[in-house]
Automatic annotation (TrEMBL):
Alphabetical list of InterPro entries matching this protein: AMP-binding_CS (IPR020845), AMP-dep_synth/lig_dom (IPR000873), ANL_N_sf (IPR042099)
Domain AMP-dependent synthetase/ligase positions: 1-252
SUPFAM superfamilies xref list: Acetyl-CoA synthetase-like
Name the UniProt record assigns to this protein: AMP-dependent synthetase/ligase domain-containing protein
GO function terms (MF aspect): acetoacetate-CoA ligase activity
Stored Pfam families: AMP-binding
């Protein structure tokens, strides 16, 4: 899920020159294996479950199937998320996040010095026309491109607070986290953007004083169909930009 532990692990992975790849928790077992089976990961970060529309979903049995199908895996790190099943004693490669960190002695942060084109991210195509295809992004190239879009296109500044509706499967998640390179504050949101009600994201914008908010055309179109006007219900004085991506906006949107 879109949790702080996911962000921490991505930053730690890339800091030592290892490759990072991610997918959302709602993908089926085969969909995950079709992706990760191509890149032979050594470590898998996951959760014991997740929430969607207020319902708790356990993921441990699915993760166990995925781990069985990925012989390259040496360790599965499980983040406790909510009130889901937490018994991992029957899974030999599994360890809880807290227990994993407890074994490590704190040390100074060191960043591996690597070539500009050293691979950083592995992303995947949608898989609608066969198995998902790998797309390797170099660390230097993708960071420069993200900063170009964030600083020049989005006018992101150090004192901004940015939030984007995205899952860890979408490239916008990687894009969002490059905001940290600008020094901006990132607000993470996990789950359905209209739960518990249609104003969920706008209440978040109000409470967290978000200045740049990103969403999809389908989300904007949904609000329009519901005749929902956020400014009539929430204080959006902090918000100076709405960024939209995913598909073209309708003429009405």
């Amino acid at each position: 899920p879109n949790l702080i532990e996911t962000v921490i692990t991505m930053l730690a992975t890339t800091s030592i020159g290892a490759l990072w790849s991610s997918c959302a928790t709602d993908l089926g077992t085969q969909a995950v294996v079709d992706r990760f089976g191509q890149i032979e990961p050594k470590v898998l970060l996951t959760v014991n479950g997740y929430y969607y529309k207020g319902e708790a979903y356990s993921t441990l049995s699915k993760v166990a199937e995925i781990a069985e199908a990925l012989p390259s895996l040496e360790k599965v790190i499980v983040v406790r998320y909510g009130a889901n099943t937490t018994d991992i004693s029957s899974f030999p490669k599994f360890v809880f996040w807290d227990d994993f960190l407890e074994k490590e002695k704190p040390s100074g942060i060191e960043f591996e010095q690597l070539p500009f084109d050293h691979p950083g991210f592995i992303m995947f195509s949608s898989g609608t026309t066969g198995k998902p295809k790998c797309m390797v992004q170099s660390t230097g190239g993708i960071l420069i491109n993200h900063l170009k879009e964030l600083v020049l296109h989005s006018d992101l500044k150090r004192d901004d607070t940015i939030c984007y509706i995205t899952t860890c499967s979408w490239m916008m998640w990687n894009w969002l986290l490059s905001s940290l390179a600008v020094g901006a504050t990132v607000v993470l949101y996990d789950g359905n953007p209209v739960y518990p009600d249609i104003g969920a994201m706008w209440e978040l914008i109000q409470d967290e004083k978000i200045t740049i908010f990103g969403c999809s055309a389908s989300y904007i179109n949904f609000l329009r169909q519901q005749a929902f006007k956020p400014g009539e219900h929430y204080d959006l004085s902090s918000l100076r930009e709405i960024s939209q991506t995913g598909s073209p906006l309708s003429p009405e949107g």
